[in-house]
Design a protein that fits this description.
alpha/beta, 10 helices, Rossmann fold, 2 domains
Length: about 300
């Protein structure tokens, strides 16, 4: 059992547009930045960060619009996220990055602009490869946006998790009405117990709107990543949806220096689920501390 109450330090930096970006720092060793995904914040990575803190100085930013950081602001786009990371990397002197889901999209895109990044680890970036995938995302988001407007937060989170086939096991076998009841209860309980510096689930759910925007912005961008010169670790779970596996396959074919690892029995949320981040951490340690890939 990992003690996620480990002592961490809070720092802030100022991004290019003046937005404050806050991050948690813990551990010692080479600098590693963890970039969270949708409906999440820095707190989501505290188990993984704590495991890695024996070997690395881990920096866990709240992406803009969440927690310790400032608002999304006008003209939100992936470039804003890259500028936020640029400020963090310049302040910390880190050279490694790990991103989950939409955080992985940001990480791989940032590596094209930030030469200080020497090693990148990605867990299932949702790169849209087909028009049919965008159409599916659009249908999910239409329902999601209506539920957010109506204050149906439990329904909204179920819509995203079911629609994108990333519902954690064994919840994916539950009927929708039962899932909505379960998530509504979870949201209420979470609001009562949220810790200092954490963000409540009811605040995080609507932020998926902006992560979806990143998916649309980066569609058909797979060819751009042939110019990534950093070493890349591609991670995914055998229980994850097929479109995420296809994204990893395509990246593996395009990148000049990549290693692919699949975790048997794990899904999309493995890096943040209880007792599963350890497996992800083991591969991250091997890659960041020892691995040197051969260019294709």
């Amino acid at each position: 059992m990992v003690d996620t109450n480990s002592v961490y330090i809070i720092h802030t930096v100022t991004s290019h547009d003046g937005t404050k970006i806050g991050y948690r720092q813990l551990g010692s060793g080479p600098g590693l930045v963890l970039v969270h995904g949708s409906m999440a914040s820095s707190q989501s990575f505290m188990t993984l960060a704590t495991i890695l803190s024996d070997n690395f100085t881990v920096y866990v930013p709240d992406r803009r619009g969440r927690g310790l950081s400032g608002p999304f602001g006008n003209n939100y786009c992936i470039q804003k996220e890259i500028e936020d990371l640029d400020a963090v990397f310049k302040k910390t002197g880190a050279h490694y990055i790990f991103g989950l889901s939409s955080g992985a999209l940001i990480a791989i895109k940032a590596s094209l602009y930030l030469p200080s990044i020497s090693k990148i680890a990605l867990y299932e970036p949702p790169i849209a490869l087909k028009h049919s995938m965008i159409e599916k995302h659009n249908l999910v988001m239409q329902r999601f946006e209506k539920e957010i407007v109506n204050g149906e937060m439990g329904s909204a989170i179920v819509t995203v998790l079911e629609g994108l086939e990333i519902m954690p096991s064994p919840l994916k076998y539950f009927p929708r009405f039962l899932l909505i009841l379960l998530f509504n209860r979870t949201i209420k309980e979470d609001a009562k117990t949220v810790k200092e510096n954490d963000v409540s689930l009811i605040e995080l759910i609507p932020t998926h709107h902006f992560d979806y925007q990143l998916i649309i912005e980066t569609k058909d961008s797979i060819v751009d990543f042939k110019d990534v010169s950093s070493q890349v670790l591609l991670l995914g779970g055998s229980n994850s949806p097929i479109f995420l596996k296809h994204s990893l396959d395509k990246l593996n074919n395009v990148l000049v220096c990549a290693k692919r690892v699949e975790f048997r029995g794990l899904g999309h949320t493995a890096p943040i689920e209880n007792n599963q981040p350890e497996q992800v951490a083991q591969e991250l340690r091997k890659f960041l501390m020892n691995h040197k890939c051969k260019q294709k």
